[in-house]
């Protein structure tokens, strides 16, 4: 009889994995839908810039005034925002006109900017490395303390790598390069420190502790079940299988349920209590450095 438990556990684990992958696929589809919506507005923008606005009006790249709540007004505001973000697109349309080559050039420019804006540690599958410790906590009964520590090492490596990457992006930004060396270094340090603390809380500490307690709760419930008369006739092999698999499956089931709430809670706490004073300090520091450089 006890041989049925590994098979049943495998089926349940597979269902949990499929559900988790479907959640990730849904997020990917949502992101793709958002980007498709953006591309739709860009096509509309292309017709606006490449058609009616080529010529004398192309120099100003202004849209005729419309009512603030109409679809045309929303499209116009999106077009203006896009032109401010990618001014080179307007230059391409003005230079070579609304032709097939201009559309190809605009598409290549947009794709290049999108690739540059992709955060490899937060918008790609690398993000899931931050949850390695949660999987390790769920499999504690199988991998032991050393395996759990290894999973924490993987998650911590992801956190440190993300902090370094965020600092690197800031160091290459135009705003940072326009500052004084000390102001730029402060901006890089604050960005890396904020990312390190945020990821440590949202990816390692809070979810790891949560899954650890969920697994402990499952063991606590099973310990009480083993003492009841209903479990009196169950053999030790079956008890061992149940004691290993049920807490593990329970922990794995909880992981996709806590990811988004924990991320949102940590983000809200940072936005309310951490970022405002930090940004105030950074702004005051940069102003002090500019005043010092002006005096010097």
Radius of gyration over alpha carbons?
27 Å
- Helical content, roughly? over 70%
What percentage of the residues does DSSP assign to strands (E)? under 5%
Instruction: Say how many strands there are.
Output: 0
Distance between the termini: 83 Å
Which structural class is indicated by helix and strand composition?
mainly alpha
Shape, please? elongated
Give an overview of the whole structure.
The N terminus is likely disordered. The radius of gyration is 27 Å and the shape is elongated. The chain is mainly α and 296 residues long. 81% of the residues lie in helices and 0% in strands. Helix 2 packs across helix 3. It is built from 9 helices and no strands.
Write the SSE topology:
Blueprint lengths: L3 H49 L18 H15 L1 H10 L3 H18 L14 H7 L1 H32 L2 H4 L3 H46 L9 H60 L1
Main attributes of the structure:
296 residues; mainly alpha; 9 helices
Short description:
This protein has 296 residues and is mainly alpha-helical.
């Amino acid at each position: 009889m006890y041989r049925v438990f590994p098979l049943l556990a495998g089926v349940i684990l597979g269902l949990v994995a499929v559900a988790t992958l479907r959640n990730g696929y849904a997020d990917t589809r949502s992101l793709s839908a958002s980007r498709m919506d953006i591309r739709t507005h860009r096509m509309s923008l292309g017709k606006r810039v490449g058609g009616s606005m080529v010529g004398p009006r192309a120099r100003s790249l202004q849209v005729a005034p419309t009512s603030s709540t109409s679809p045309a007004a929303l499209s116009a505001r999106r077009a203006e925002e896009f032109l401010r973000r990618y001014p080179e697109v307007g230059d391409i349309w003005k230079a070579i006109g609304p032709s097939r080559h201009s559309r190809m050039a605009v598409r290549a420019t947009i794709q290049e900017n999108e690739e540059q804006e992709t955060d490899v540690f937060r918008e790609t599958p690398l993000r899931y490395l931050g949850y390695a410790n949660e999987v390790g906590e769920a499999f504690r009964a199988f991998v032991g303390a050393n395996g759990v520590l290894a999973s924490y090492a993987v998650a911590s490596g992801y956190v440190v790598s993300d902090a370094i990457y965020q600092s690197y992006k800031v160091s290459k930004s135009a705003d940072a390069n326009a500052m004084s060396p000390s102001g730029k270094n402060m901006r890089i340090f604050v960005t890396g420190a904020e990312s390190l603390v945020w990821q440590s809380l949202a990816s390692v500490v809070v979810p790891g502790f949560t899954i650890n307690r969920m697994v402990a709760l499952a063991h606590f419930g099973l310990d009480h079940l083993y003492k009841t008369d209903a479990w009196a006739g169950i053999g030790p092999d079956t008890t061992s299988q149940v004691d290993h698999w049920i807490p593990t499956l329970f922990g794995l089931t909880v992981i996709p349920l806590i990811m988004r709430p924990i991320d949102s809670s940590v983000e809200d706490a940072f936005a309310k209590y951490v970022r405002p004073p930090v940004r105030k300090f950074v702004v005051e520091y940069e102003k002090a450095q500019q005043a010092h450089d002006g005096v010097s």
